[in-house]
From TrEMBL:
Regions crossing the membrane: 5-24, 55-72, 79-101, 121-140, 152-172
Domain of life assignment: Bacteria
Organismal lineage: Bacteria, Pseudomonadati, Pseudomonadota, Gammaproteobacteria, Alteromonadales
One Pfam match: DUF998
Record key words, sorted: Membrane, Transmembrane, Transmembrane helix
InterPro entries in UniProt: DUF998
Species of the source: Pseudoalteromonas byunsanensis
Protein name as annotated: DUF998 domain-containing protein
Length: 201
């Protein structure tokens, strides 16, 4: 029964992100989804500093780890598929750490706090894990589980993620609506995770 639930966790986590961020934003007066990062909901001193990790990071980390565990313990698959599971687990752990160590209220501060530095590194692990994971799937052998079409889709998601990350970097430097670029970039990663979840069902 545990495995039958875990296989859906990739999709559930993807839906949870959007719902959780929306709900938390309702308790943050004046919050802008286009101008502000998702992590600003849990930033030090924000109105939702305590709420956001409780409804986002902690349950999401659990869902990612459950799904990653399911991938990591699959038998009769390429070792690259199992390695993908460990990367999803790393994404889940990074989600927990990013929730426990909040970012600074001002994302443009020149002297970030210790908590913000840890938060940033956790975010980097989260980002990198779901960039490498689809690459591993893309180069894994074609099987009934990992079809050629899904391998191509994985490459597309990686390219789309990287392209929107470039746009995010430019928007952040220009302080011009980085929030929307972050959501689009992460959205491609979550889309890939959702499709993988359904393939495994």
């Amino acid at each position: 029964m545990f495995e039958s639930i875990a296989v859906y966790c990739g999709f559930i986590a993807s839906v949870w992100v959007f719902i959780g961020v929306y709900v938390a934003s309702r308790y943050y007066p004046g919050y802008s989804h286009t101008k502000q990062f998702c992590s600003e909901l849990g930033a030090t001193g924000s109105p939702t500093e305590k709420l956001s990790p409780l409804i986002n990071n902690y349950p999401l980390g659990l869902l990612f780890c459950f799904f990653g565990w399911h991938l990591a313990q699959l038998s009769n698959v390429s070792v690259l598929v199992n390695a993908t599971g460990w990367l999803v687990i790393a994404h889940g752990i990074g989600t927990w750490v990013a929730g426990y160590f909040p970012m600074d209220a001002d994302p443009y501060t020149k002297t970030p706090s210790f908590n913000c530095k840890i938060h940033t590194w956790a975010g980097f692990v989260m980002l990198l894990s779901l960039i490498i994971a689809p690459i591993l799937i893309a180069i894994s052998p074609t099987t009934e589980l990992v079809t050629l079409s899904f391998r191509i889709f994985s490459i597309f998601c990686v390219i789309a993620t990287v392209c929107t990350l470039v746009a995010l970097t430019k928007a952040f430097k220009a302080q011009n609506n980085p929030g929307i670029h972050q959501r689009i970039s992460y959205g491609f990663q979550l889309l890939w995770l959702s499709v993988l979840s359904f393939i495994l069902v």
